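Quick check before the chapter quiz. The format below is the same one you will see on the exam, so make sure you can read both the input and the output lines.
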Amino acid sequence: MIGLVLLLVMTLMGIAAMRSTTMQERMAGSLQDQNRALQAAESALRGGEQALRGVAVPTFDGDGWYDILDDLARPTWDTDPTNTSANRAIEYTGDTALDESLDRPPQYYIERLVPVIAERGPGGSLSLGDGEALEEMDLYRVVARGFGRNSNTVVIVESIFRR
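Here is the expected output.
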């Protein structure tokens, strides 16, 4: 009788250990998938910034290129991040190492912001007001979205780019 009780206790301990190990494996897999999505989003972000470094900036007429003052519809990633539609965004295909391990290619779009005038402030540093006007800076917002292996794993990153 005592042997059966001990066998039952050891079985319950084994089942608890297996459940714990399985949960840890899932957590590690989710973290790896999120990291993969972050790397994809970062690659797309750098791809968008590289497009802005070109000799001429394309026209801002929609389909991934927007002006802050236009009324064109932009991607709705902030309200629906897992929407797989690539409409109104640019698919990034520059990093082929990511292609095999992702649910779908990362995407980005670029938005031209209102120009900002940099001025010489007190102490000779650059500031953005109440000083001597030095130059007008063109600023752009680059927003990128990357996916992991699971379509529900999404990372959205954004940067402000000065040209």
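If your answer matched, good. Residues 2-52 form the longest helix (51 residues).
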